[in-house]
Amino acid sequence: MTEQNPLTAPPQAPDGQPADQPRREAPAASRIAPLWTAAGVIVLLGLAVLVHWLTVWVPQVTKETGFGRVAKSIEFPIYAIIVGFGANALLSALGLRKKMSAAFRTEFLIKTGLVLLGASINFAVIAKAALPAVAQAVLLISAVFMFTWWFAGLLGVDDKLRALLSSAVSICGVSAAVAAAGAVQAKKEQLAYTASLVIVFAVPMIFFLPWAADLLGLSPAVTGAWIGGNIDTTAAVTAAGTLAGEQPLQIATIVKVTQNALLGVVAVLLSMYFTFKVERAASNQRPKLITLWHSFPKFVLGFLIASVVATIFSAVADPAIAKPAIGVANDLRTWFLTLAFVSIGLEFSFGSLKEVGWKPVAVFGAATVVNLAVGLLLASVLWGGFGF
Question: For the CA atoms of the chain, what is the radius of gyration?
């Protein structure tokens, strides 16, 4: 093989291509990605319309049947999640789900819906619920985090994965895992494992907790506090709260956003622990308090602002104007939450669980049981006498 003389060889571009030749065009896949996202948005909107239609149609056609009584009590989150799972299976079989996945924005949709939910909650309820909500959040997060951290260590789980599991199950699911991953520099695979476990455990809780609360005869406030404190993802909390009723939904949301607000604090503490103890020999970097703001879920502020604005508006405006305006916000909330619940089904995947092993699953399962027990105790003690 003859070698080229470096003095006479044509100049090379940074990618190794001769400089006098035109650069290759970008891959076709990158050019059509926005089209797939647009197609995903259309699919998502179509499924939301289908959910709305099912919510009205099923009770009507089953009215004279034995299923009619059950159909009347089925709320839109159930239809949305079932439709999402069905569409997930179909799109996956056709090889289209991953191509459209950029359109399935559960986190954005649920946070927008929760900001709109703030407009329907009188700020006086939030102010009244603030003390028990903060007390529950601090006590529950501390108890569940410490148990999960201890049990994961007992099973020999890696410290970084241990931090992700403890944060996710004790605070707010995937968002907490993401914040913890940034604080402790966890691997992407560890974040994927944790996120998958959150979804696997959260979806059944959407249906189990409202049923269990009704079986136990819990009050609306205790029901909402139990749901808000024990289901890991904000989307699943909202779905379960919707099934339980308007008052449980309000308390569940207040409890969950209070937990979310503590996410930044936990991220800073984890960062300090890993910097000063776990990785002290390898790094001299000190965590910055700006991490607190970066990790803080900004939608919590939107939720509070919406509640304050709506409360003031309802107090000073003509009821003939204020009531329809709040009604529009509620309708928009329902559509955004429907889109979010459909996205839950569309984003669900068991793929990243294949290599996780049994230890993280055992940790998450045990922590969930402890969370349920401690959460029910705290909800009963702190919210038993709460009145709307």
Answer: 24
